[in-house]
Specification:
CATH topology: TIM Barrel
Number of helices: 12
Strand order of the largest sheet: 1-2-3-4-5-6-7-8
Strand content: 5-15%
Radius of gyration: 17 Å
Largest sheet: 8 strands, parallel, barrel
Distance between the termini: 28 Å
Helix content: 40-55%
CATH superfamily: Aldolase class I
Bound molecules: 1,3-dihydroxyacetonephosphate
């Protein structure tokens, strides 16, 4: 059985003092969950988040990294730097980075490899635009993105990659994919991984759904056969809301 992983992506939000308060309030609310809890925070909050989350079940991730280990890349942060302060996870290839910062499937692949070389666990984002969806290209786009992101990885590395299926039209819009649609897209991603790395590897890869996840829809989404939790943006900024998403099993799906 795959576990559920619920990760918050704070994007460019929260200062260190807000980070400390958030984690201090969240920790008791999620301490009994069987699900894995990750907060991906801005670089400037990482150190504070890591200190505050010590002795809790909350894991800390970054939202990006460079694929080179060091060098003349003004303003960039490497996997080695993240690892040195004990960061465990890193989001790679979020659609906002692909859209605003020109990340490509090639840079995503380089970053995934660099993350593994430095002992970080990547959360790789894939997803289609509304235009691609309307042109019936969803499956082709997301399976291609997945294939290219994982190119050249060992079976073991693929097993340890978290994939987040985030349809771009559902991010920050309040529109969520239906649970059936999200599950089917995730199944298509898993089938592609099975084709390239075998069914056993595919069965153990965690594939999350992201895009307007809230406490009111988390349960129905996360209970689907292939959806292994979520990558949560806006709703991860509020302790109460995020804790309900982490504890989704206790939510009443009708509220
Ligand atoms: P929202 O949950 O705000 O739609 O954002 C999703 C997302 O981009 C998480 O990475």
């Amino acid at each position: 059985m795959r576990k559920k992983i619920i990760a918050g992506n704070w994007k460019m939000n929260k200062l260190p003092n807000e980070t400390i308060n958030f984690i201090e309030e969240l920790a008791p609310l999620v301490k009994s969950t069987q699900n894995e809890v990750i907060l991906c925070v801005p670089y400037t909050d990482l150190f504070y988040a890591l200190l505050t989350a010590q002795n809790t079940n909350i894991k800390i991730g970054a939202q990006n990294m460079h694929f080179e280990e060091s060098g003349a890349y003004t303003g960039e942060i490497s996997a080695k730097m993240l690892k040195a302060i004990n960061v465990e996870y890193v989001i790679i290839g979020h659609s906002e980075r692909r859209q605003y910062f020109k990340e490509t499937d090639e840079t995503v692949n380089k970053k995934v490899k660099a993350a593994f070389q430095n002992g970080l666990k990547p959360i790789v984002c894939v997803g289609e635009t509304l235009e691609q969806r309307e042109a019936q290209k969803t499956e082709e786009i997301i399976t291609n993105q997945t294939e290219l992101a994982l190119e050249g990885l060992t079976d073991e590395q693929v097993k340890n990659t978290i994939i987040a299926y985030e349809p771009i039209w559902a991010i920050g819009t309040g529109k969520t994919a239906t649970k059936e649609d999200a599950n089917n897209s995730i199944k298509a991603i898993r089938n592609k991984i099975a084709k390239n790395y075998g069914q056993k590897v595919a069965n153990s890869v965690i594939i999350q759904y992201g895009g307007s996840v809230k406490s009111t829809n988390a349960k129905e989404l996360f209970e689907m056969s292939d959806i292994d939790g979520g990558l949560v943006g806006g709703a991860s900024l509020k302790v109460d809301e995020f804790s309900k998403i982490v504890n989704f099993e206790n939510n009443n799906s009708n509220n």
